[in-house]
Amino acid sequence: MKKVINNIGGEMINKVKIGEYIYTVEYGKNTGSGYIGYIDYEKGKIKIKNTLHYRKTIETLLHEIIHGIVDYYMLRKVIKDDYEEYFVDVMAKAIHALLKDNPELVEDIIREDNLLGK
User: CA-CA distance, 71 to 41, in Å (whole number)?
Assistant: First the structure.
């Protein structure tokens, strides 16, 4: 995936695949939603406010990706509406910490695809 430069000089992805769908990730002054992050399922876009600290940008991107996962895998059937935002927020922070604390896990996942010829 290509990377783009955010406002503080960090490289960030500009596409993410959720299930069979590829979402374009855009960073700008306004998400059009009044929130710091927003996923538009119909247009296949994730918008992230570009004035955030790098870590908050990552967490917000993960947050929106998890919304996409909830939608794609129809998890709203098991997550009550009142709890979706809480669930997504906790999962974004937990996955961020997991991946940051265990970089070898990402390497193993990539290696698995290489071993399987993907």
Answer: 9
